[in-house]
Amino acid sequence: MSDSSQTLPSARSWRDIPQEVQPRAMSKSGRRRHALAVAKTLGGLVLGGAAIWAAVEVYTVIDHNPKRLATATQAVPVRTLRLTSDGPLNEAWLTRQLALPKGVSLVELDLAKAQERLLACSQVRAAVLTKSFPDALHVTINERVPVARLMAQSRDGQLREFLVARDGIVFEGEGHAADTRGTLPWLDLGDARLMRRGDGFAPIGGMDVVAELLARAHLEADHLYRTFEAVSLARFATDHLIEVRTSEIRTVVFTTKDDFFRQLAKLDKIRDELRPSAVAPMTKVDLSLGSHVPVVVGALPAPTPSRAVAAPKPVADPATKPVLPAFPNFLRASTSP
Amino acid sequence: MSSRPRFIGAVEIGTAKVTALVGEFTGRELAIIGYGECQSRGVIKGTVVDYKAASECTHSALEAAEQSAGERIDYVFLAQTGSHLEGFYNEEAVNVRAADNMVSAHDIDTVCRLATAKELPPGRMVVHNIRRPFRVDGRVVPGSPEHLVGRRLEVGYWIVHGQENKLADNIHVIRGFNLEVRELVLASLASGHMVTTAEDRQHGVLAIDIGAGTTDFVLYRDGVPYITGVLPVGGAHLTNDLALGLRLTEGQAEKLKLRHGRALVSPGAKGDKVWLDGNFAIGDRQFPRQALEQITATRTWEIFEVVKKKLGTAFAPETCAAGVTLTGGTAKLPAIAECAAKVFGVPAHLGEPPPSVSENLRDPSFSTALGLLYYGLASQAERHPRPARGKLGFFQKLFAKT
After folding, report:
1. Contact status of A70 with chain B (Cβ, < 8 Å)
2. Model confidence, pTM
3. Which residue from B minimizes the CA distance to A27?
4. A–B CB contacts, 8 A cutoff, strictly below
5. Which domains occur in chain B, in start order?
6. Rounded to 5 degrees, what angle do the CA atoms A7, A10, A16 make?
7. Is B144 exposed, middle or buried (0-12, 13-18, 19+ CB in 10 A)?
8. A13 touches B: beta carbon within 8 Å
């Protein structure tokens, strides 16, 4: 009997009527109540979620690094200086350049001033300093890449070799090895003079174009680039010409108005066909005239002794006046270390 | 039971007005803390015929009730009336299983399941299963028959059912206010529970709730509802007959009914005249009082006669010792109790809510909404009994002892 009663079909009750109605079937007040109820539910969920998230965060902090908050305010002297650089500058340079006071803590350290000190070195293009508590300072620098070199008088009156970056900044090139420097062509400013600015020099204009030529030569025709001895900007401002002295040709004239790749290709072809040699040297190749390339073949004239040994003379006020002919002569043998 | 009080709404969507009450139920006590009313629209004879209009007035009443209470209603007990509601009696019996003939809970459960498992016509749904007292070997058992000894256990149910779409319409009107309907209560059961006492119900009493569009009645016997019913006539029909008989508008007829209507013709009515408005303005005119009273009395008498006819043999003066209790808006008609007494042949009186109900809610038109709260809570308690004493918490036990 009990089994049969359990399988009896029960009559449908009013409780079987689904009570859900679409919001459009609700009155304005009903929709308002509905929206409020939904908002309350969502608010509750958000609050609950936020509480859970906060609890998880607190647990994580306590569980993984319980001393983090406590040690943040402790004044510990800086013990570690870490340098990350894309150039040759090292941590010894960093220590020297920053010149941090002895016993200074990270809390006391003024990062803006320290960054200013690093950027005072013209070799540094960008510097990022990060405090890593309790006692480490991480420095990440981006160095300038030299594209050419020149001789100039330093502030102590000595004639020294400087490097020039793509943006025309002249810097000492600390850490750059001699053999690396030796591969760079010399830069001749022509009638222009290297001007002093502060402790260094004013940027050289047009270096971005020169850098473009050298980079293209280095990448596309390295056998030509290796013969480049000097680059002259003497006719750059007036005629948009760049004169290059190579070990085989006394003067190769490039124009900035034509594609450097095409000009390099012409030079390469001429060089291959004419085969400059000591017997039949090429004096000048002018690539600035489009499809016509005048080539002067003949013996090199003897260098002028006075120009070859023209020693730079210190100026009275180096801050306002030109320093010296930036480039003494085009003879690599006489100036390269 | 949670400690947070629950705010229960009791809603009666009547033909003349929509009433909403808000009760604060703490788990032990119920307090009426707010009420709202709105003239009904879109409802004819207790049935929703215009969803939008009915929704608007119901929601207005609910909003007014919430504002009056200062709280938001959690869920609703809804009164249900209408001529689509019908009832029938179904009885089943089982042989007691135990060898010692002791009635077990399983026997009770089985016989109750059998008695309520009655298929209904398509589109009909059960609104109430009202159980009558158990009988063990023909002996009436007022309470539970468990552990009594007998060979045969019988029980009967008065099953009230209604049309599914009409029930759904009423529920959706409330749901449109984003409130859940927790209990659907027959209007006659709600008002009858309010205006009769447990003693009356035990002795037998007929409660008649005469509203504007419907007349709901319930006959109690042995403390439980024996028969319920709904007539699609009410106070609005008195108004309608007055309007037709005296050639008046509905509004004028309603005004006359409220001022001069009677359920019995008064002896001094002959030759007496009554004014329509009494302000001597243009259009104000006189009517013979006797004609007016004749119409209202005849119609009232008819309503009672139809109720008596519907009850049939179930109603007998000797099984209705507590007489007839009248409630509802039309019960305010003068001499209606005398009229009912003459028709049914038993004493009749106007029902009154318990003394605990505040003065402004003692009007007979509130009896259904009030009864909804009490009957609805009683039904809920019956369906979800409170945990046994042994399951009380430590503090509850402690306080129970102190």
Report:
1. no
2. 0.59
3. B176
4. 85
5. 86-161 (3.30.1490.110), 197-350 (3.30.420.40)
6. 130
7. exposed
8. yes
